[in-house]
């Protein structure tokens, strides 16, 4: 019988990191209507910049701060430049534009960083707690706890804060919200920047927990966050959080099976497809009942 216990912590940590990006995707979509497919590339670029700064003997914590701020600024610049012209376009057009931005960043990263990129070891990975089969580093603990705190803080912000209320109003009707005097551009800029910070933090965590491989950080690994957001129907932060944890655990536990480990990257697709099919079936049933 495979031993699943060693993979529980890994799965929860990965799921938490997926959740951070997923929450950023949901908040941005609810505010601007943009499904930002460049989130992986932004996080990857931030982690590579941090790696370069540390490699040149710069202060580690400064490097991590620069990486997160860079991700936020890049996301904000994209939102300010292309957000308004695409505001009234089809969601598919908006998503395609962000995918183009991701490919530009990917090309730059592959040109600038080659085989000299190794691994990004966060200082928190050196601190660990061990008790029997349980072995957890502080990086993994942050990956599990911080996303829950982010989700709670975001929920409270959207319900209690004036800017949060404006974000919720934008999600319902952009034009009417603007007529009520809400500073639409400023509210959207806040959503772009904050989501970018989350993408940058997630990129650092993934680079430490999983891999520094550029293409994987840009597309392969972050797919799980997109799947979690889709399971949450790009609306519910808590469903997105829960789905991300489930995806992370399943993905990690597949490593316990030598015959299934190579298929673990399919987990986000399978989970998202099954849940979306269930939503479709339930809608049909409710339609027949009505």
Architecture overview:
- With 290 residues, the chain is an all-alpha fold.
- The protein has a single domain (5-289), classed as ABC transporter involved in vitamin B12 uptake, BtuC.
- It has twelve helices and two strands, in the order ααααββαααααααα.
- The chain has helices spanning 8-32, 39-55, 60-82, 91-112, 138-160, 162-172, 174-179, 184-209, 214-220, 223-231, 237-253, 267-289; strands at residues 128-131, 134-137.
- A two-stranded antiparallel ribbon has the order 1-2.
- Strand 1 and strand 2 form a beta hairpin.
- Helix 1 (8-32) runs antiparallel to helix 8 (184-209), helix 3 packs across helix 8 and helix 10 runs parallel beside helix 12.
- It is globular.
How would you summarize the topology of this molecule?
Elements: H1 8-32, H2 39-55, H3 60-82, H4 91-112, E1 128-131, E2 134-137, H5 138-160, H6 162-172, H7 174-179, H8 184-209, H9 214-220, H10 223-231, H11 237-253, H12 267-289
Antiparallel strand pairs: 1-2
Radius of gyration: 19 Å
Number of strands: 2
CATH fold node name: ABC transporter involved in vitamin B12 uptake, BtuC
- Characterize the main sheet: 2 strands, antiparallel
| CATH architecture term | Orthogonal Bundle
Mean pLDDT: 84
Q: Total domains, how many?
A: 1
Structural class: mainly alpha
Order of helices and strands: HHHHEEHHHHHHHH
Total helix count? 12
Strand order of the largest sheet: 1-2
CATH class: Mainly Alpha
Termini gap:
48 Å
Tell me, briefly, the overall form.
globular
- List segments where confidence is low: pLDDT < 50 over at least 5 consecutive residues: none
Strand content: under 5%
Report helical residue fraction.
Answer: over 70%
């Amino acid at each position: 019988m495979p031993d699943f216990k060693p993979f529980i912590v890994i799965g929860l940590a990965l799921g938490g990191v997926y959740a951070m990006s997923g929450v950023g995707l949901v908040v941005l979509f609810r505010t601007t209507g943009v499904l930002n497919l460049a989130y992986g590339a932004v996080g990857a670029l931030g982690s590579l910049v941090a790696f370069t700064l540390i490699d040149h003997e710069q202060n580690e914590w400064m490097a991590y701060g620069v990486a997160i701020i860079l991700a936020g600024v890049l996301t904000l610049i994209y939102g300010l430049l292309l957000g308004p012209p695409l505001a009234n376009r089809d969601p598919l057009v908006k998503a395609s534009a962000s995918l183009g931005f991701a490919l530009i960043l990917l090309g730059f990263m592959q040109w600038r960083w080659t085989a000299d990129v190794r691994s990004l070891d966060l200082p928190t990975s050196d601190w660990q707690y061990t008790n029997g089969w349980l072995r957890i580093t502080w990086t993994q603990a942050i990956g599990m706890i911080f996303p829950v705190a982010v989700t709670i803080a975001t929920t409270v912000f959207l319900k209690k804060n004036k800017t949060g209320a404006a974000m919720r109003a934008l999600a319902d009707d952009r034009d009417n919200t603007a007529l009520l005097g809400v500073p639409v551009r400023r509210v959207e800029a806040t959503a772009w920047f904050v989501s970018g910070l989350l993408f940058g933090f997630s990129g650092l965590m993934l680079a430490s927990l999983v891999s520094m491989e550029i293409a994987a950080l840009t597309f392969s690994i972050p797919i799980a966050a997109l799947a979690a957001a889709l399971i949450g129907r790009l609306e519910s932060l808590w469903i997105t959080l829960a789905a991300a944890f489930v995806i992370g655990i399943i993905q990690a536990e597949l490593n316990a099976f030598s015959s299934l480990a190579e298929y673990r990257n399919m987990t986000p697709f399978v989970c998202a497809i099954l849940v979306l099919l269930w939503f479709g079936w339930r809608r049909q049933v409710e339609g027949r009942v009505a």
